[in-house]
């Protein structure tokens, strides 16, 4: 199992944070901003369409999609923060992992840090370190299995 | 208007003083403190100015905390000895505010007027990551203000500053007069 | 040397006195910085709003509350979960407007105002108006626009402290650029 990259968007579509671990190939999209915009747009569309075609009211809504090569995991808070973690295919439901990332890392080190402005890209080193530590210690991070 | 004036206000003095066991969520406090830091930051230009402002606000808390501690802990007599005063801060004040003693109390080797209270991870700094361009900023200055007000209120005039050293070090520099007085008290 | 005040030592809690006095320090700083009381009230509300948009994240992260279905549920969650979690008190929800878009939160005691007495000449100071800002900010983050104000305040000699909340409208998620 492995983790490729992570995007955090706020509800205005601003990419607050992006980080990659074992992402070996890039999208080839000219600028990173453009990639963020496309990612947010795709998630936004999937989310709203998935809700629209649902036969009954969805509880958690869209949570992941798979391709033959990777899995895109999505978690959204009621305040509209969106966490998108791309992993390989062996990773199961990681809603809890993303919720933990939100509550133990984002809330603790961004929300409670007076020097982090909300709605702006996160520059805090403390957040960066804690996030990296958290992800690297996840069982799903192990790179040399299979 | 008349009816408002006639309404009997229950005076704050009629209510019993709390026992000091009440607690609030750390997050609530952290967020309030965070707003305070940001507010101060919006009104000043430099890091030292920001720290001064926080220290000033700490005074407000320190003066009142001292009254509360004296009133509540009635057996507590006013400290006249410097070391006991410092221990009071390290132990009683810290425990009341943070539920624990301060990590360390040290005396400077080269200056008898200077003492250090060292706290490895002050609660006030728990959530703050200082950006590189402001690396000297230490928001625990607020605590320095509390200490300073308590010392001044007990007639131990001193200046307290905050430093990044072994975590956070509060450097307490007493007035000459305090040291001189302490020696005469010792001499008895 | 003295009796120790024993607190629970829970690392997720902090002395209520430290909190109350710190808030007092903030208010008195504002009173010093702005000569006009209305401006102080406005600033407190603004600082509250800034707190609210952060506090809601902490709330969502630590409570298992999902989206509320209506205002009644929201009111209940604010009082029984929100106030309890952050201030350790549970206000009473009451005085619903006939159309169900307005309600009051009644506070028996307000931790912000322990040790506080309004000085002469400051009777227009809305000492706790930070709470209005917090509610407004927090609810805005879960897509609800509301108006919040104080109806009664024990600090001003009223029998109870009453905060009024009026629902204005539901806010929509931002649509990405170039989408319909």
TrEMBL record, chain A:
SUPFAM superfamilies noted in UniProt: SNARE-like
Location(s) in or outside the cell: Endoplasmic reticulum; Golgi apparatus, cis-Golgi network
Entry's Gene Ontology BP terms: endoplasmic reticulum to Golgi vesicle-mediated transport
GO CC term, one of those recorded: endoplasmic reticulum
Pfam hit, one: Sybindin
Assembly notes: Part of the multisubunit transport protein particle (TRAPP) complex. The heterodimer TRAPPC6B-TRAPPC3 interacts with TRAPPC1 likely providing a core for TRAPP complex formation.
Designated name of the protein: Trafficking protein particle complex subunit
Native source species: Lingula anatina
Gene from which this protein is expressed: LOC106151993
From TrEMBL, chain B:
CDD domains according to UniProt: TRAPPC5_Trs31
One Pfam short name: TRAPP
UniProt xrefs under InterPro entries: NO_sig/Golgi_transp_ligand-bd, TRAPP-I_su5, TRAPP_component
Protein name (Swiss-Prot/TrEMBL): Trafficking protein particle complex subunit 5
Transport is among the record's keywords: yes
Role: May play a role in vesicular transport from endoplasmic reticulum to Golgi.
GO biological process: endoplasmic reticulum to Golgi vesicle-mediated transport
SUPFAM superfamilies, per database record: Ligand-binding domain in the NO signalling and Golgi transport
Subcellular location: Endoplasmic reticulum; Golgi apparatus, cis-Golgi network
Automatic annotation (TrEMBL), chain C:
Descriptive protein name: Trafficking protein particle complex subunit
Keywords, in A-Z order: Endoplasmic reticulum, ER-Golgi transport, Golgi apparatus, Lipoprotein, Palmitate, Transport
Classification via PANTHER family: TRAFFICKING PROTEIN PARTICLE COMPLEX SUBUNIT 3 (PTHR13048)
CC annotations in GO: endoplasmic reticulum; Golgi apparatus; TRAPP complex
Species this protein is from: Lingula anatina (Brachiopod)
GO biological process, one term: Golgi vesicle transport
Family: Belongs to the TRAPP small subunits family. BET3 subfamily.
Function: May play a role in vesicular transport from endoplasmic reticulum to Golgi.
Quaternary structure (record): Homodimer.
Lineage of the species this protein comes from: Eukaryota, Metazoa, Spiralia, Lophotrochozoa, Brachiopoda
Location of the protein in the cell: Endoplasmic reticulum; Golgi apparatus, cis-Golgi network
InterPro entries assigned: Bet3 (IPR016721), NO_sig/Golgi_transp_ligand-bd (IPR024096), TRAPP_component (IPR007194)
Gene name as annotated: LOC106153734
Pfam families registered for this protein in UniProt: TRAPP
